[in-house]
Amino acid sequence: xxxxxxxEIVWDKRNKTHVLKHFIDLEEVERALHDPNKxxxxxxxxxxxxxxxxxGRILFIVIEGKGRNSVRPITxxxxxxxxxxxxxxxx
Length: 91
Description:
- By secondary structure, the chain is α+β, with helices and mostly antiparallel strands.
- It has one domain: Nuclear Transport Factor 2, Chain: A.
- It is 29% helix and 35% strand.
- It has three helices and five strands; from the N terminus they run E-H-H-E-E-E-E-H.
- It has a five-stranded mixed beta sheet.
- A hairpin with a 4-residue loop joins strand 2 (39-42) and strand 3 (47-54).
- It is globular.
- The protein starts with 7 loop residues before the first strand and ends with a helix.
């Protein structure tokens, strides 16, 4: 289980390249993952979907847990209308 109050974000060449393809800055991903109002849902043993706000826009991020204190982003892109509504309804 991930400690959401104190975690490290693990970047490597593969996930950096993939996120940047979606025109998302890595700093935006980090900020959205630390959003105190983020929507978080477990979607597998160690996979989570996160919807969080950053610099005025809302991102959809898929991450995998890499132990108690680290997560690895798999993909990130700007949230669609449905995801934005979900984020806003959970605040």
